[in-house]
Amino acid sequence: MEYALLQAVFLPLLLSPLAYVIGRRFGHTAATWFTFGLLLYCTILIITASIGETYEEHYPWTELFGEFGLLLDGLAAPFAIMIYVLCTILALYSKPYMLHKFHEFYKQQAPKTVYQSDGTVLESLSLEKFVNRQSGVYYALFLVFSMGMLGTVLATNLIEFYIFFEVMLIPAFLLVGFWGDHPRRRIALMFFFWTHVGAVILLLGLLAIGLNVGSFDFADINEADIPTDVVVPAAVAIIIGLGVKLAAFGFHIWLPYAHGSA
């Protein structure tokens, strides 16, 4: 299928505003099934493209950063399939959990029940609107987070990899900040700060390699003879940056708080 990888990566991003609109107008269930259907379609694209030999797509980007490519080979395919299969399942699995979360947050913000003259509860309409709005935001962020994970696996360029890696940070920060356990905002800021510190260090390492080689494409870097005085500090920066962002042992300051809150 033409543009299979491009669709699988960017459809969730481009249609995330639609998930928000559907959730807000038609409710939690509609947003759930829309997200599930979209991710299922993208999962089928990935599985179909992975059948047979290595599949890759390349698109013009900018001369400064090299070529924008998406590669599905024997290494990337299992991770790409795993990411979207799990995300597709989680779109359904998280539905009752998040619905419960939305109701809890509504009770915290509107603890008083208001009755109309006929005895019916006035707050019921407000609750429905609150849940719908929350559902739309949640599934929109969920789609962006999913595409960020897939993009890091399929990237063929250091800057492309970095951008996708950072795209995941934004929805993850908002998911924890909006619906994490208390003190969720402080923990979200801690998560954002430490992972951003790691991202800056990682970027320095990637720039050192790319600027020395004259290209950020993995293929060009693989064939280049990079001097040791560049490789060593760049490798140290990349290891530290990834260690912080992945919460490896020794760099896991934010992990217990963020995962506990999430």
UniProtKB/TrEMBL annotation:
Q: Which Pfam families match?
A: Proton_antipo_M (PF00361)
**UniProt xrefs under InterPro entries:** CPA3_Na-H_Antiporter_D, NADH_UbQ_OxRdtase, ND/Mrp_TM
Instruction: Spell out the GO cellular component terms annotated for this protein, sorted alphabetically and separated by semicolons.
Output: plasma membrane
Q: Which GO terms describe its molecular function?
A: NADH dehydrogenase (ubiquinone) activity
Ranges where the NADH:quinone oxidoreductase/Mrp antiporter transmembrane domain occurs: 155-260
GO term, biological process aspect, one: ATP synthesis coupled electron transport
* Tagged with keyword Transmembrane: yes
Residue ranges of the TM segments: 6-23, 30-51, 71-93, 136-155, 161-180, 187-211, 231-255
Q: How does it sit in the membrane?
A: Multi-pass membrane protein
- Give the record's keywords alphabetically: Cell membrane, Membrane, Transmembrane, Transmembrane helix
Grouped into one coarse class, the protein's main location is membrane
Localization: Cell membrane
Protein's UniProt name: NADH:quinone oxidoreductase/Mrp antiporter transmembrane domain-containing protein
Question: Which organism encodes this protein?
Answer: marine metagenome
Q: Taxonomic lineage per UniProt?
A: unclassified sequences, metagenomes, ecological metagenomes
